[in-house]
Amino acid sequence: MAGGLEPALAALRRELGGPALLSVLIALLAVALTFLVWRFVQGRRSSRKAVLLLGLCDAGKTLLFARLLSGRYRDTQTSITDSSATYRLSHDKSTNVTLIDLPGHESLRLQFLERFKAAARAIVFVVDSVAFQREVKDVAEFLYQVLVDGTVLRNAPALLIACNKQDVTMAKSAKLIQQQLEKELNTLRVTRSAAPTTLDSSGGPAQLGKKGKDFDFSQLPMKVEFVECSARGSKGEEGDADLEGLEKWLAKVA
Question: Which residues are registered as beta bridge partners of 159?
């Protein structure tokens, strides 16, 4: 087949004035195709405007949601449905994303994730930094289910682990939480390697991280960052929340 193509290519070179011009045309075609692919990817990303707030019950998601939208403290209770609102950047009111607070109850969280995951531009996974040592296995289990989901892997939304309740003395640092989560996720990966699970029933088994290496967050297809924050704030109801790191991250992904 290659031999049959040579005469055609030689004739095309003669018509176009030689190999140099043909090379230029091929290069221009490659650039055009790259641009079209880039536009397609950007178009898909721009259609995803949601930032999902995930986490276990009592991690502080709903108070974070309220503080980001109004800046004010309010009493919250365990959510049994989703809440959504438009979040506008403080320095650019024309730029916005849709914040969606999803229930953290074990019997509800996966069905709500299933409903909204395709629209996610980014995910904020909220961790209770005070109760983390006690809840680490449950936190890692939920995060594992998110990370091996087929839709999440394909879309690779930016992921922020928000280490909440840093106003409390016993709160664990973001660095320790990252280390412990990587260790627990690695254990889950090993124990489930014989029969990995995904939330996307149409896809095949998902592999978390790189085979043969201990898991760390840098192995994921999406960018993962950690911030320390406090929805309550050091002065409680009367003071401001400490959300500077979270707000800067939202400005980057909006």
Answer: 123, 224
For the chain, domain boundaries: 50-194+206-253
Q: pLDDT per residue over 102-113, tens digit each?
A: 999 999 999 999
Model confidence, pTM:
0.78
* 213-235 CB burial, b ≥16 within 10 A, e <16: eebbbeebeeebbbbbbbbbbee
**7 CB neighbour count, 10 Å cutoff:** 9
Q: Which CATH superfamily is domain 50-194+206-253 in?
A: P-loop containing nucleotide triphosphate hydrolases (3.40.50.300)
Half-sphere exposure of 157 (CA within 13 A, CB side): 31
Provide the terminal-to-terminal Cα distance of the chain, rounded to the nearest Å: 50
Query: What are 135-194's pLDDT values in tens digits?
Result: 999 999 999 999 999 999 999 999 999 999 999 999 999 999 999 999 999 999 988 876
**φ and ψ of 207, to 5 deg:** -100, 125
- Would you put residue 23 in left (φ > 0), alpha (ψ -120 to 50) or beta? alpha
CA distance 144 to 188: 8
How far apart, in whole angstroms, are the C-alpha atoms of residue 104 and residue 61? 9
